[in-house]
């Protein structure tokens, strides 16, 4: 039986019924619907709709229903109910008879669905926050183990200046710190209960909505019922947070795919997260990372589809809004899985120190140092840059590293260059010079790692 049968004379068309139902995906909100229904039943006692005994009967029946769902959540899917709200109500009525029909007094599925969805988001956000922190910990552990591994840093995918692997790790820690803060911020705005908004203009029963909100663990209750049932900002914000974090994960994946390529050979990925080729026995493909890079697109898709879904949608609730869920559920699952897989990849990575060092040596990544050296000898940076460029050009043509050029060759380009040039252009010297805040020097990196370990409580 549908929840709204009274006004209708004819049965629903079968095709429409199938088209209209959301049970196949909103069944995962069963626990949240029971939770908010129990809170609502308590509120109904205050209005006199239920007496204490009736409320307890409803609460116990809902708890026993919850236990049944815990054992087999998919049993819900065998029903032809329209959505999870009608399924819970129908089952409650089956358990306790007529009394169950009182529960929906004063509420609407419009405030019910957004309450359930917010509760679901709150639970997921806690898990995502924890996994974002865990990923940061993985970065710090591997950074500490490899704090002195020198590798090339890139711009335009060209070797630019030497960095260390730990410094690269710390760059990602910064990104995931911002993701963490964004998620916390999303949670702060989301943590407002819409329950008691009714269909769109508030409930006709004199209830204490603030008390109801606190009883469900929300921070407060919403101010305007019309807005409350129309609002899906929190879905968009959560998807935006997911999209930004997935973007970070995709850049991380791409960096590692490149580091793992035969051309770079900076790292080796563990067998446990790579796959082989069915044809070419030598292959070890970075599938986990390629999938994260690829899955980023479906999370962006969810964000875009929800933005479009809500664009110009008139107030207040419209059935269009039922379409917010599948993509949200999928995006959150994808994001969480990607965070977990990224930690797994990092924890099992092996660095090839020698290849990293050799690559950093090869790319003339110390050319800036020659220019800085000349500046210290009193010429302008522009002029020094030009001289250094000429020296690099000579070295490229003669297939030599800068450190392998004779002093006399350097002096052909500038008489200011002396024998001390060699100690200024070692990779170690390039790194050690960058001691100011945010720089790559080992001292700064060690300091940063220590600070992060305190923050992450892993001392
Ligand atoms: N399944 C609906 C949704 O997900 C629940 C709200 C239904 N409200 C309504 N007035 N039909 O949005």
From TrEMBL:
It is found in: Cytoplasm. GO terms for cellular component: cytosol. Pathway: Amino-acid biosynthesis; L-arginine biosynthesis; L-arginine from L-ornithine and carbamoyl phosphate: step 3/3. GO terms for molecular function: argininosuccinate lyase activity. Keywords: Amino-acid biosynthesis, Arginine biosynthesis, Cytoplasm, Lyase. Its main location: cytoplasm. SUPFAM superfamilies: L-aspartase-like. This is Argininosuccinate lyase. It comes from Buchnera aphidicola. Residues 364-432 form the Argininosuccinate lyase C-terminal domain. GO terms for biological process: L-arginine biosynthetic process via ornithine. Residues 6-301 form the Fumarate lyase N-terminal domain. Belongs to the lyase 1 family. Argininosuccinate lyase subfamily. It catalyses: 2-(N(omega)-L-arginino)succinate = fumarate + L-arginine.
